[in-house]
């Protein structure tokens, strides 16, 4: 199909930015753009009977807009008064300043800003506290059940049987229930039909609870506990020695520095104190990667490029990398075109973008986009240890802890029981 612009050669201002743009040379030694957006732009130009040529930014910068309305990098090349390129390939984010000077197409894809950190060791194996055998709600439920059972026994004696309850009798209910809970049921002598029924129910529940406690406590003796994760801005600012690496002179820089609220203030203070801006093509180099795994830095970048890089790093290294789960800033990725191309051509390319987006066409297969694996990307939750080793004293730490605590509680309870017994005996002697 013939168009008014058929045969036109578009000038692309581009900076290498995998996986968005991956430059390569075709069979005729012509520089071409691959990647998520590179393949899409190639498809759009070809479908509109056009070709393109690629130029690097004349000033060596990626491209960003400043408050005074000036721009640098790829964006500057597309401005009317410069006219060194027709399309600033980006990807960029939405900007009112840029929109005043350049044509803004619809975003072909969306991503968001994340933090990438590294570590030598993802998990450490250690014993877990016995109190974590059950959730806090289970412990609260146990306490409530203990109090409720005691009150029911006292209620039966006072209301149903119309008997006066002395303090030592009420405490007797408490000690009997506690003895049962500690598996000392053979010493328990509940009196009366109601208290025996309640005591039997409590005895059965105590056996079940005790067996569950023993099993759960043994199951979590040795767990895989995550090492430190940089998952939020608060985690980052708590480590002032961590250097922030970010893409300098790109739209990500102002978006990162302009996060609103108290957390944004914390981040800006950290950026001013310890950060390094780097060109996009070298932000994932080996030196930065080494700083990450040595716990000396984090990378602020869009999630798409971060995940593509991490997949590759998992093959190249035995270290671990963590991608923050928090969505710091939404990043609609788009390119900008010159208004000198004319409204008709710009609208035609915009319609192509919308059509390709609606069809969900992938211009870079997942096997190419995520070339590698994610075995080096750990989670942030505890898990059972897969270590096979003999049981040592250290492994039984939680069992000893449980034994010591229960013994101390039993001793204290016994002392209280003796104290109450002698107190009541002394009171009885005085009455006589």
UniProtKB/TrEMBL annotation:
Cite a single GO BP annotation: detection of stimulus involved in sensory perception
Q: So where does this one cross the membrane?
A: 137-156, 353-372, 399-422
Cleaved signal peptide residues:
none
Family annotation (InterPro entries):
Glu/Gly-bd, Insect_Ionotropic_Sensory_Rcpt, Iontro_rcpt_C
Q: Which residues form a coiled coil?
A: none
Database matches in SUPFAM superfamilies: Periplasmic binding protein-like II
Q: Where in the cell is it found?
A: Cell membrane
UniProt membrane topology term: Multi-pass membrane protein
Q: What GO MF annotations does this protein's record show? A: ligand-gated monoatomic ion channel activity
Q: What is this protein called?
A: Ionotropic glutamate receptor L-glutamate and glycine-binding domain-containing protein
Q: Which organism is it from?
A: Tropilaelaps mercedesae
């Amino acid at each position: 199909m013939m168009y008014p612009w058929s045969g036109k050669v578009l000038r692309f201002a581009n900076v290498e930015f995998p996986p968005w743009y991956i430059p390569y040379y075709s069979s005729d030694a012509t520089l071409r753009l691959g990647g998520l957006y590179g393949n899409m732009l190639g498809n759009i130009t070809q479908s509109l009977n056009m070709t393109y040529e690629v130029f690097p930014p004349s000033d060596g910068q990626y491209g960003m807009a400043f408050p005074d309305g000036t721009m640098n990098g790829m964006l500057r090349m597309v401005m009317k008064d410069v006219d060194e390129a027709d399309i600033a390939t980006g990807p960029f984010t939405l900007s009112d300043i840029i929109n005043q000077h350049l044509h803004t197409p619809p975003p072909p894809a969306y991503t968001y800003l994340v933090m990438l950190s590294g570590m030598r060791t993802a998990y450490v194996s250690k014993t877990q506290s016995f109190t974590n055998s059950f959730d806090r709600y289970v412990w609260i439920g146990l306490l409530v059940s203990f109090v409720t059972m005691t009150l029911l026994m006292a209620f039966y004696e006072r209301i149903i049987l119309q008997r006066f309850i002395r303090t030592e009798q009420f405490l007797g209910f408490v000690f009997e229930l506690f003895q049962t809970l500690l598996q000392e049921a053979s010493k328990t002598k509940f009196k009366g039909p109601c208290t025996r029924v309640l005591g039997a129910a409590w005895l059965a529940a105590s056996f079940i609870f005790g067996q569950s406690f023993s099993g759960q406590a043994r199951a979590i003796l040795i767990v895989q506990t995550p090492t430190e994760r940089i998952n939020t801005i608060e985690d980052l600012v708590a480590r002032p020695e961590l250097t922030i690496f970010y893409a300098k002179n790109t739209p990500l820089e102002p978006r990162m520095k302009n996060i609103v609220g108290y957390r944004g203030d914390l981040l800006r203070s950290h950026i001013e104190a310890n950060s390094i801006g780097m060109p996009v093509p070298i932000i994932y180099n080996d030196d930065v990667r080494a700083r990450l795994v040595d716990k000396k830095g984090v990378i602020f970048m869009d999630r798409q490029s971060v995940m593509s890089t991490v997949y590759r790093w998992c093959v190249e290294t035995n270290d671990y990398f963590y991608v923050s789960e928090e969505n710091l800033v939404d990043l609609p990725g788009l390119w900008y075109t010159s208004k000198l191309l004319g409204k008709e051509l710009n609208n035609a390319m915009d319609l192509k973008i919308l059509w390709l987006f609606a069809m969900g066409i992938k211009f870079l297969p997942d096997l190419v986009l995520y070339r590698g694996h994610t075995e080096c990307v750990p989670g942030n939750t505890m898990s059972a240890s897969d270590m096979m080793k003999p049981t040592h004293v250290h492994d039984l730490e939680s069992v000893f802890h449980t034994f010591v605590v229960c013994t101390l509680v039993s001793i204290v309870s016994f002392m209280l029981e003796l104290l109450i017994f002698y107190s009541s005996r002394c009171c009885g002697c005085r009455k006589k």
